[in-house]
Design goal:
Blueprint: H1 4-10, H2 19-70, E1 113-115, E2 125-128, E3 141-142
Antiparallel strand pairs: 1-2, 2-3
Length: 143
Amino acid sequence: MKTRNQMRKNRPVRRAFTLIEIIVVVTIIALLAAVIAPRLFGRIDWAKENAARADVKSIALAVTAYTMDASIQLNDGFDLNDLLLPPDDGGGPEGPYLKKNDDLFDPWKNAYVIRIPGEVNYDFDIISIGKDGQFGTEDDITN
């Protein structure tokens, strides 16, 4: 018959992390997060700005296609929502020119604005009011 001490010797030894090892790992993770997080947040703003630039160009192309298909001149009464309408509901003859209502909102959830006549372009400008949500500031994006 085996004694208690002999039975303990045959059992595998349980190994656990020490408190110091855990503190070192947590500290390393915190340092990495402190270095990487600011870079990631900067990239998010950059990505949103690029998405808004692409959207502005896309909407400008849709407006141009709408005016050419409908053989009309833009006036102050033009609404970007017309680009979402099929021909039977008052949209252009080849409409809809945009697929969904979300296409009319920038990455910061502000509605795109059309300015007729344009200040940057001759006939019209499509504008995202940018991150600050204020019209006429430095972060505005225009086609």
